[in-house]
Amino acid sequence: MAKKKVRQEEDDAEEEFGPPPFNEKEFYSSELELAKTTIAAALWGITIAFITAAIFALTNEFYIGLATGILAALVLKPLLDRLKIITRQLETMKWLGTFFTYFMCWVAFWVLLVNPPIMDLSPPQLRDRTPEYQELGSPIRLSVEVLENSGLSSLTAQITGPGGVQKLDGFEEVSLKFHQLSLGYNVSGEYNYIVRAEDSSGRSARLNGTLYVVPSERPTITLIAPSNGSDVALDSPIYLRVQDNALISGVYYRLDSDQEKIFLSYARGGYQSYRTDGIKDNIYKLRPNASGHRWSPGAHVIEVVAFDAAANQANQTYSFTLK
Predict the structure, then answer these.
(1) What is the value of pTM for the model shown?
(2) CA separation for the pair 288, 237 (Å, rounded)
(3) Is the pLDDT of residue 234 over 60?
(4) Which helix (H) or strand (E) holds 79?
(5) Are 123 and 146 within 8 A, CB to CB?
(6) Tell me, which fold does domain 220-322 have in CATH?
(7) pLDDT tens column, 248-274
């Protein structure tokens, strides 16, 4: 009898801790309302995308369209009530999913509507890449970068210089988005230019700049540190200043009797202690331990060569002893 009583108590305990009865009707009802909510949120997002696209087309103000889309999200709950969709059973995460659906549909369709091939609401963007100083004997050019999402219909320049005013349209697309116009000037002086770009939808942009054409001169090379004829360590760089009245095209050195040209890179950042205020200088750094060009211990002679865009060249010879 005691065993039967214990077994009966165990059976009762299993029945007591079993899963609650599944309400199939309530489950399908809540899932149906959730599906209706998701579809309504997606359709509302697409509708607001058309509205914000129209606002953006009329005002060309991004923030007005953004504010419209955000405010429209606040209307979502009253809209669902108006459509008689039951939302009282929605949990916090499901509400977050509903708003996420709205925002994704709104943003995706808004971006689609305001970009080609549907609409082109943005004018071309121009970035001036023209060197300020260019040297006679070098190819005198205007260089611009053009960012445009629907294609250019025209790219022109108006140039005012010592010889008067010129209007030119012979830009060449050197690479993607990069355009150059050859000028071929043979008179030094100041040239002011206006570049104008127009896209296929009629929107335009312009930029102004000044170009100085200077006489042809050789570069100058100055040894900064260490001094000529001194001892250097393998990890001690040699600093050079290379100056020109326009553009330096390249700097290299030859080690001892070797004819191999070892090109040096312009040191853009830092080295302020080696720079001179008011002087256009370029600092170059030569490393005796450069990969593939490591110096051997002992005395060395280096010839430094610099050349500019007009093919003018300067040469200097220095000696160092690697300890």
Answers:
(1) 0.63
(2) 7
(3) yes
(4) helix 76-82
(5) no
(6) Immunoglobulin-like (2.60.40)
(7) 999 999 999 899 999 998 877 666 666
